[in-house]
Amino acid sequence: MRQEGHPGREAVQGLAVLGATGSIGISTLKVAELHPGRFRVVALSAYERAEELRALCQTWRPALAAIHAPETAHWLAQSLADTGTEVLAGPTALERIVCDPRVTTVVCGIVGAAGLKSAWAAVAAGKRVLFANKEPLVMSGHLLMALARQSGAQLLPLDSEHNAVFQCLPQPRAGLAGAGVRRIVLTCSGGPFRNTPASEFATITPEQACAHPRWSMGRKISVDSATLMNKGLELIEACRLFEAAPAQIDVVIHPQSIIHSLVEYVDGSTLAQLGNPDMRTPIAHALAFPDRIEAGVTRLDLAAVGRLDFEVPDEDRFPCLRLARAAAVAGASAPTVLNAANEIAVEAFLARELPFAAIPQVIESVLEARPVVPAESIEAILEEDRMARECAHRVIGGHRAKGVVAC
Ligand SMILES: NC(=O)C1=CN([C@@H]2O[C@H](COP(=O)(O)OP(=O)(O)OC[C@H]3O[C@@H](n4cnc5c(N)ncnc54)[C@H](OP(=O)(O)O)[C@@H]3O)[C@@H](O)[C@H]2O)C=CC1
Ligand SMILES: CC(=O)[C@@H](O)[C@H](O)COP(=O)(O)O
Ligand SMILES: [Mn+2]
């Protein structure tokens, strides 16, 4: 993560917000709205929510917009005809956006592995790249970090825990050991089922799983928080972003989500970043870094919060965390397989085709079925992702054939 030579301070940043219609995209635009002299919205993207993208384009008047399906793009172009927005579609639209010379800063707010190619293109193009989309980092973070060193891209974490760790580390950095870091502690809310007995997991519905106690987020990450896979993915994400070994990352349950993560130093000091659970804070931090700007969030009132609690995570009830740690230790293709199996299992759960309790079972079966192979090119990673998804579909098919009912 380099700091020099990028538009943090003086130049107006040209923003490309990928996944503009999602939770991260909307929070980013709320921060940008507070600072019209600092940020110009150059490009917005969505996948299928065309009405929402049209409304954003009418407000922000970006030079470029992208949506997945060509026929939807045609409709969008017609309805934005008087705005000057050029509408793109198809597989290379996002790559074209991030490479546009008017774009200095790319906000990666797409969900899942679907964000990998655009994130990759943004890093290759040497942009300032703000990562919320953790799945590409889990799959290929080691390659993205190396690519950033070559291209001069500046990678900044938006994920609240990683942004907190970033804030607790000295800048510029020269590795964790050089900075005297002993370990990184990621906090975890515990999700909506922190106190739910495992015997009740079989009947959990998508609505219950998506009702996160602290954060308002998209459906996929909300389910990940409920299984604790979100923390597992974040453990791997932290290994990638901070070039840490899995053994240097611990997880602690902190139900209030006020401390967003901690860094322990060899001298016994532990630094933490605190704030109300609102993504506009890490987004404002990364957008303005190294400056600090108003984020529009409610100030933290510790007396009103009253108490901060901590617990050890229960990996028996939440095996996804254990599976993710094992994948981090195995390295190579294992994190890609873990992520792919999780995406397919969560999709099936949200479609009421798989019980909540079966999500970790599917992931474990896919991890057992796929050999760990080298992951030293983006092509190899994409191929492993494809095969792991196929395997997950077969495992889920077998599960359904046994007549296990989903809620
Ligand atoms: N929400 C949060 O607070 C946090 C999110 N993150 C991470 O950020 C990412 C985004 O999360 P979140 O904003 O909650 O997700 P949302 O589901 O709210 O938004 C996802 C966005 O990505 C677009 N999208 C979905 N599928 C595709 C696809 N195949 N190709 C291109 N675009 C697509 C959606 O478009 P459309 O609306 O048209 O479907 C939407 O704009 C995730 O990786 C998540 O883990 C990390 C920390 C916090
Ligand atoms: C806001 C954010 O960064 C999420 O990733 C959050 O961490 C989810 O909360 P959990 O700690 O419940 O996974
Ligand atoms: Mn997070």
UniProtKB/TrEMBL annotation:
Mn(2+) binds at residues 159, 161, 234. It comes from the Bacteria. GO terms for molecular function: 1-deoxy-D-xylulose-5-phosphate reductoisomerase activity; isomerase activity; manganese ion binding; NADPH binding. This is 1-deoxy-D-xylulose 5-phosphate reductoisomerase. Catalyzes the NADPH-dependent rearrangement and reduction of 1-deoxy-D-xylulose-5-phosphate (DXP) to 2-C-methyl-D-erythritol 4-phosphate (MEP). It holds the Pfam family DXP_redisom_C. 1-deoxy-D-xylulose 5-phosphate binds at residues 134, 160-161, 189, 212, 225, 230-231, 234. The keyword NADP applies. The gene is dxr. It catalyses: 2-C-methyl-D-erythritol 4-phosphate + NADP(+) = 1-deoxy-D-xylulose 5-phosphate + NADPH + H(+). Gene3D superfamilies: 1.10.1740.10, NAD(P)-binding Rossmann-like Domain. One of its GO terms (biological process) is isopentenyl diphosphate biosynthetic process, methylerythritol 4-phosphate pathway involved in terpenoid biosynthetic process. Belongs to the DXR family. NADPH binds at residues 21-24, 133, 135, 218. Its cofactor is Mg(2+); Mn(2+). Pathway: Isoprenoid biosynthesis; isopentenyl diphosphate biosynthesis via DXP pathway; isopentenyl diphosphate from 1-deoxy-D-xylulose 5-phosphate: step 1/6. Its EC number is 1.1.1.267. Keywords: Isomerase, Isoprene biosynthesis, Magnesium, Manganese, Metal-binding, NADP, Oxidoreductase.
